[in-house]
Amino acid sequence: MNIHILYGTESGNAELVASDVSDELEGSHAVDLDDLGDFDPSDFDDSTLYLIVCSTHGEGELPQSARPFADAFADLQPDLAGVRYAIFGLGDSTYANYSRGSEHIDEMLTSRGATRVGDYGRHDAAGHRDASQLASEWAAGVLTAEAVPA
Prior knowledge:
Blueprint: E1 2-8, H1 13-26, E2 31-35, E3 48-54, H2 67-76, E4 84-91, H3 100-111, E5 115-116, E6 121-124, H4 131-145
Parallel strand pairs: 1-2, 1-3, 3-4, 4-5, 4-6
């Protein structure tokens, strides 16, 4: 199974986390890594598992790099039946809209028929866990739950 990691970032944190997850998985899987801003929503493929890492900006908005994706998605309204994805949100629980950026992506994908698999991963910047380590553990759990062979 193909694994495609997509990230949406404002300051680069989600990119760093996605890159670290990609590095963890590359030893046993073929992995593609792209910024959501460079991904065409019409390219979703039901033979690929998508791992999405997305931060939150401002008052719960999408990060800058995810906005072109969201605009293209709204224009295309792709049929995502059969597409499977897992999502990992970055945020800070001291803010009212903690991890809301990733929730926007989640809502967009499910609204067009995609299926979220595995646990919804989240990193809290107000906590003490390393975001990359937590995301790598999350990704491994998603792959195990989906029975993706190494």
